[in-house]
Amino acid sequence: MDHYKEPRNFGKLDEYNVECFDQNPLCGDKVKIYLKVEDGKIKDIKYEAEGCAISISAASMLSEEIKGKTVDNIKSLERDDILDMIGLKLTPMRIKCALLSLVAIKKGLNKNET
Amino acid sequence: MNLKKDFPIFENQEGLVYLDSSATSQSPKQVIDAMSQFYNEYKSNIHRGVYNISEYATEKYEKSKEKCASLINCSPKEVIYTKNATEALNLVAYSLTQGLSKGDEVLVSELEHHSNFVPWQQLCKLRGLRFLVIKVNEDFTLENIQEKINKNTKIIAISHISNAVGAVNDIREICKLARDNNIITVVDACQSVPHRKIDVKKLNCDFLAFSAHKMLGPMGLGILYGKESLLESLIPFLYGGDMVKDVKISDTKFNDIPWKFEAGTPNVGGAIGLSAAIDYLKKVGLNNIEAHENKLRDHALEKLSTVNGIKIYKAKNQAGIISFNLYNQNDKIIHPHDAASILNEKNIAIRSGHHCAQPLMDKLGVPATNRISFYIYNEKEDTNKLVESLEGVKKIFN
After folding, report:
1. Alpha-carbon distance values, B43 to B34, B52, B264 (Å)
2. Chain center to CA of A12
3. Residues B93 and B46 in one domain
């Protein structure tokens, strides 16, 4: 709830080289994540998100978690890592909300490489 | 009415407050038994078998058509079974637009469920037709339709009752206007046939689609009514077995209506379940059902309006479906999915989302709404429990 009420790293980066977007058609959650990647590391991250408490809290927590981590670190993150991070028992539908940001970031990073 | 006892779900899910019947209704024992009887005692494929159980299954299947026809006052040959109402609407959209020419116009409304919106939108694109949308006013009445009609307007596809906000359209009036202008009408009646007496002759519509699972029946069965003369003239939507009379290498002669539109093995068990559902609905009486839901609606509107920070999307003419959003003390929307999740913990099932009506959500300027909908097994107590728990939701988000 704390992350929902005061999301960390909210906004848009002035300088970024990876833009990630995904949405959850079921809830209408949308997230746009801006990454500044240098030497295979996440130097900075910001995001704009609209949606439910779960998706916004997950984006906020994830943004704190991955700052400074390597791209490979992030690619190895999985569903359970996010669920552990959130620490709530979620129903399958709500798990989609929780995973939205990670899915968006992975998509964005993959696209960036190709 | 106190019919909960007929519905096994309420025995198996103790304390369940089910307020999502416009997504799907629960089935009474009578429906489930009729279907298991088919599977236990006479499962067989219909129409071609000459042995006893196949003859019997065929008879039951065709009997189901008769019951459907009598429910909406048409001939059994005007009743087509599809896999769901979406397929029924796709069938009409595909087959009807085939006969149109470039520049012809199709009119839908902003209230439509995606299933009566996207097929028209996409087929118009594909066939060079114009796709036009009737806007709605703040009370969810339609803006002037007359202004959208011209000599190129060929089809009006419109819902009787909006699934998203429960607004009831004056279908009779719309069909009359359409008829006066030689426009074909396609009515999405998914939210009306289960809840009130519908007579296609009185409505004077050309096509009408609804779905079995929203009227106590099983999933996997949609129903399309089409006027005989129109069905005769339309091309089939799906090709294959059972929809043919004679197949040669050079060409195929199609079966008579309605079978021309029913390619492949139909959902026989589902049709038999629907028969039982119609029997049940008729026994309770559709007028009684409508009156019961009106009472629940009035009670709910009154109760909900006492909740602080609630925005109810009230329609001028409202069915037993109510959409609303909650706002916290800082006037920030409490996302419907969060509200619904918290209600779920109290065993209260409501729908939250865009209700497959994204154009309407865009208009309201919200990503989603909370929606409750009533049916014959609901009682005022269900709403009371909901309203109590909404206070809990507000506490968490304030």
Report:
1. 12, 11, 16
2. 13
3. yes
Same domain, yes or no: B186 and B330: no
Q: Which residues pair with B108 in a beta bridge?
A: B133
Residues B254 and B208: their CA atoms lie apart, in Å, by: 23
Helix (H, G, I), strand (E, B) or coil at B21: coil
Q: Write the DSSP assignment of B253-275 as a string of letters.
A: EEPPTTGGG--S---HHHHHHHH
For position A103, which CATH number holds? 3.90.1010.10
State whether B87 and B142 are in the same domain.
yes
Closest chain A residue to the Cα of B361, Cα to Cα: A28
Question: Catalytic positions of B, please?
Answer: 356
B344 touches chain A (CB under 8 A): yes
Residues B268 and B292 in one domain: no
- Range(s) of the domain holding residue B191: 29-283
Query: Interface pTM (ipTM) of the complex?
Result: 0.76
The answer to whether residues A7 and A26 touch, using CB atoms and an 8 Å cutoff, is: no
Across chain B, mean pLDDT equals 96
Number of domains in chain A: 1
Name the amino acid, one letter, at B85. Answer: A
Could you tell me which of A74, A79, A113, A75 has the C-alpha nearest to residue A97? Answer: A79
Which CATH number belongs to the domain containing residue B372 in this structure? 3.90.1150.10
| Per-residue pLDDT tens over the stretch A49-87 | 988 899 999 999 999 999 999 999 999 999 999 999 988
CATH, residue B109: 3.40.640.10
Asked if A97's CB is within 8 angstroms of B337's CB, the reply is yes
Across the interface, whether the CB atoms of B367 and A54 are under 8 A apart is answered no
Domains held by chain B: number: 2
Compute the nearest-CA separation of B370 from chain A (Å). 11
Q: What is the pLDDT of residue B2?
A: 86
Report percent pLDDT > 70 for chain A. 97
